[in-house]
Design goal:
Among the domains are: 158 residues, Beta Polymerase, domain 2 (2-Layer Sandwich), CATH 3.30.460; 48 residues, no CATH class. Helices cover 47% and strands 11% of the residues. The chain is elongated. Strand 4 and strand 5 form a beta hairpin. By secondary structure, it is an alpha+beta fold. The strands form 2 sheets. Strands 3-4-5-2-1-8-9 form a 7-stranded mixed beta sheet. Its cofactor is Mg(2+). Its EC number is 2.7.7.19. InterPro entries: Bact_CCA-adding_enz_type3_sf (IPR050264), NT_sf (IPR043519), PolA_pol_head_dom (IPR002646), PolyA_RNA-bd (IPR032828).
Length: 399
């Protein structure tokens, strides 16, 4: 058991963000509560980025009240009761109290509610169902979330299997929250048995939802406990197509290398550790997780690693970019000394330099440029004066 938490939220800097007082005044303090991650993370003395509000007001009323107070709103999820208030200090999601009418494992049909407990009952874990009054800061804890938070116990609200059948993504969320807030050495038979029995249901989820949750798992300071649990629960191979043999060991080695070299964690790099080092495997995973174009490109680059990467790390960085090179070396367990604190320089030669020395326009210009660039890299990127000497030698050799 950890420290006991008070039933009153400590004052926090996010409450003083510009525009927050105006929002509270517009909605009315008694008609709203801070809820979810902002409350939980404040109690844990963690940084708070996103702020969520639950309110008795219906969405159109929220819009009207904010507009009257000069606060711009965006109906980001109005059909689900959510309106985003655009404050100078950052956006705040304001959601009407809800209860589930029907669920199918992928999405819920909701109705607006008037009871705070009804709204809390539809949330996934007790530690996420903590509500705080914006003025008194008194915490309403309907399902024992404060004691669970103190015990580092990530517990489903109600029956675990029922909650998972309502939304299959809760299996992945359970693992992520266990890894971030829970005690991974603790055994939670009900929750883990339910996740294992319903592991197949994650295959019914949209690729976007799986990709979003899996990349958040990979962004944890150390995701190895989470991936080990996903493996035990028979989930990992269902969300990572083409899972490599000993994938979790590869990931653990990568995390160790990141920490040893003080390199910031990268979710895509960590995904690359889970699959074979082939472009086919990278393309398959990128498609399965609906990764962005930038993420897909990064994954393909990381998957192109081979034994030659360690021979000329600076060549690798010049040809593929510093981030990809660092990632490949980390995945290979190789030394980063040649790359840390170094940035690939621009090639100090242009086509006009070649033309000025009598080479006729055409394919020969490109050939000369490529040859000189290759030698420039082999000589560890010397200055322009040396490159011009290399250029003269290549032109004279061709004559």
């Amino acid at each position: 058991m950890g420290k006991a938490f008070p039933d009153r939220l400590p004052a926090a800097s996010w409450m003083q963000r510009e525009g927050m007082d105006a929002l509270v005044a517009a909605l009315g303090a008694d008609q709203m509560r801070w809820v979810g991650g902002a409350v939980r993370d404040t109690l844990l003395d963690l940084p708070v980025s996103d702020v969520d509000v639950a309110t008795l007001h219906h969405p159109q009323t929220v819009i009207n009240l904010c507009t009257a107070a000069g606060i711009r709103t965006i109906p980001t999820g109005i059909e689900h009761g959510t309106v985003t208030a655009i404050l100078p200090g950052g956006p705040v999601e304001v959601t009407t109290l809800r209860r589930d009418v029907a669920t199918d494992g992928r999405r819920a049909t909701i109705a607006f509610a008037t009871d705070w407990r009804d709204d809390a009952a539809r949330r996934d874990f007790t530690i996420n169902a903590l509500y705080a009054h914006p003025e008194t800061l008194t915490i309403d804890d309907y399902f024992g979330g404060l004691s669970d938070l103190a015990a580092r116990h990530v517990r489903f609200i109600g029956d675990a299997a029922t909650r998972i059948r309502e939304d299959h993504l809760r299996i992945l969320r359970y693992v992520r929250f266990r890894a971030r807030f829970g005690d991974m050495k603790r055994t939670d038979g009900e929750a883990e048995n339910a996740c294992h029995a319903l592991a197949h249901t994650v295959e019914d989820l949209s690729r976007e939802r799986i990709g979003w949750e899996l990349t958040r798992i990979m962004a944890l300071p150390d995701p190895t406990g989470a991936t080990d649990m996903l493996m035990r629960l028979d989930v990992l191979h269902r969300v990572v197509p083409g899972l490599a043999n000993e994938a979790t060991k590869h990931l653990a080695a990568l995390v160790d290398a990141e920490q040893a070299n003080d390199v910031h964690p990268d979710p895509v790099r960590r995904l690359a550790a889970l699959i074979p080092a082939t472009s086919t495997a990278a393309a398959k995973l990128a498609k399965a997780l609906r990764l962005s174009s930038a993420q897909s490109q990064a994954l393909r680059c990381l998957a192109g690693r081979d034994v030659d990467d360690t021979a000329q790390p600076r060549r690798l960085a010049f040809e593929h970019g510093l981030e990809c090179a660092i990632g490949r070396l980390l995945l290979a367990g190789s030394d980063l000394a040649d790359l840390l604190g170094w940035a690939p320089p621009a090639f100090p030669l242009s086509g006009s330099d070649v033309l000025a020395r009598g080479v006729r326009p055409g394919p020969e210009v490109g050939r000369v440029m490529r040859t000189v660039q290759d030698r420039w890299i082999e000589e560890d990127f010397p200055p322009r004066t040396r490159v011009l000497t290399l250029l003269e030698r290549e032109i004279n050799k061709s004559d």
